[in-house]
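A quick aside before the break. I want you to see a complete sequence-to-structure record at least once, exactly as it would be stored in a machine-readable document. Don't worry about memorizing anything.
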Amino acid sequence: MLKTRERQKGKNQYQKLGEKGEFLEVTEYNAHLWVNLTDYLDTGLFLDHRIARRMLGQMSKGKDFLNLFSYTGSATVHAGLGGARSTTPWICRVLIWSGQNATCV
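That is the input. The structure line, written in tokens, reads:
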């Protein structure tokens, strides 16, 4: 898949681009995650954050994890795989996407 990203400003950069709902399963360390390559400007799974997500998984054992900056729920999945006592993303849309990601575990 080739995607050309053009500069966008304001709220335009966060607009949904389509309704295809085509998800692809990707693996990041021990997590299996769904990314949407068609409906949004980006996938929401930023490669430069993967080290931070791995660290969250390593530090979460026995802790309660509230993800206040969730887009795909991937950090929440890593925390859960790392043994967090409880995990919660706080946006309804993310709860749905996180649930889909949790089914990959």
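Two observations worth writing down. The chain has one domain: 21-102. The mean pLDDT is 80. We'll return to this after the break.
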